[in-house]
Amino acid sequence: MADQLEEIKKLASDINQMVEKGNEQAKLAIEEKGKAIDAALKTELKNALDAHTELVQKQTQEQFDALQTQIKKSGGFGNNRPESFGDLVAKELEANKGKLSTKSPFELEFDRKAVGDMTTGVNLGAGVLQPSLQPGIINRQAYFNHVRDFLTVRPTTSPVIAYVRENGGEGSFTTVAEGALKPQVDYDLSYQTTNVKKIAGHIRISEEMIEDVPYITNYITTRGAEDLRLVEDAQILYGDGTGQNLRGITLDASAFARPAGMGTVANANNVDVIRAVMAQIRVGRYAASAVMLNPVDVAILEMAKDTQGAYLYSNFTNENSIPRIWGLPIIVSDSVTAGSFLVGDFRNGAELFDRQALNVRFYDQDRDNAIRNMVTIVIEERLALANIRPASFVTGTFTAAKAALAAA
Q: pLDDT tens digits for 327-345?
C-alpha cells in the first residue's frame, strides 16, 4: 500500500508537468492561429490520468476492505452495541463509495457528530479496562506475641528431657543459742521427665498455583506457621499431659488463694485480683515477672469506672507499647481463656525445649503428587515443656478470685 501511494504521487507530478506543457502548447496554438496541440501529448496525458484514477480507486478500496476485515474480526456490529468511531468510519466509506470513481482529487469527510455520551459502562467492552492488581496476597496480621516469647527456650538433641522440679520445702533458718539444737531445713525436690511432642500439619497445593499466583507460597507458609504457633500456645498453657499433649503450665500452677493476713477486700475488682495474686506468689518466695490475660480482660481493666465516671485503673501504664499493671508487663494473648488469668515467673518458672524448631518442607513425591502435579507442604515442630517451679505461677478465674477476696 505504501508503494501505491508513492506511485500515485509520482503520477500526479507527471500529470501536472504534462498539463503545464499542454497549456504552453495551447498558448502557442492561439498565437500561431490554429496550430494543433501535439496529439502524442494528449494521448500521454489521458493515459496518465486513467492510471492515476485507477490507482486511487484501488488504494482506497484496499483501505476500505482492510477496515471491513478488522471490523469483522472484532465481532462486527452487534444489535445492542453502541456505534463506535470505527463503526462510523466504515459506514461513511460504504455510503461514499461513489466518490471513489472520480477522476479528480477529492476529500472524503467523516461525520463525527456526537451520537451520545461516552461512559465506561456503555462504550467500553469487557477486558478493555484492565484492573490494577496489588502484587502478592495481603495476609492477616500476625499475633503480637506467643507464650514462647516470654519463656526460657533451650535447644535439645534428646527426645526426653529430665529435670529437677522444685516443690517448696519445710523448716527455716533461725538464730541459735550456744549449744542449742539447730533447726532442720529440707527442700522438696523431685526428679521429672517430659517427652518431646510434635505439632504438625500439611497443605497440598498444585504446581500451577505455585507458579501462577504470586507470593502464594509465602502466604501459605506464613499463615500455616502462625496457626501452628497458636496450637503451641494452647498446649503450653492448657495441655493435659496425656497422649501427645504437653503438660501445660496451668496444670501444675497454684490455684488462687487469698494470702494469709489479707483481710476482706470490699467491692473487689479485677485490679484487686491481680495485686492479690502478686502477693500470693511473693509470700511463696517467688517473684512474678508478668501477667498473661485475654485481650477482652485487658479491655475490662482499662474501661473500669467509678460511680462518677472516672477511670479506676490508676495503676495501669504503658511502656514501649507494652501495657503494665502494678509494675508488671501484661502479656496479651488470645490463647488465654477469657475471664481467667495466669501470673508468674515466666523466665524461671518454666522452660521450653526445641528438639526440632518450626520448619517448612516441600514434597512433590507424596501420594499421587507426581501424576497430579501437586506439592505437599509440611509444617511442623518438636518440643518439650518443663514446669520447673510450678509454685511460681498462680492461675484462676476473676469471678472466683473476687469472691474469695470478698469473703469474710
A: 899 999 999 999 999 999 9
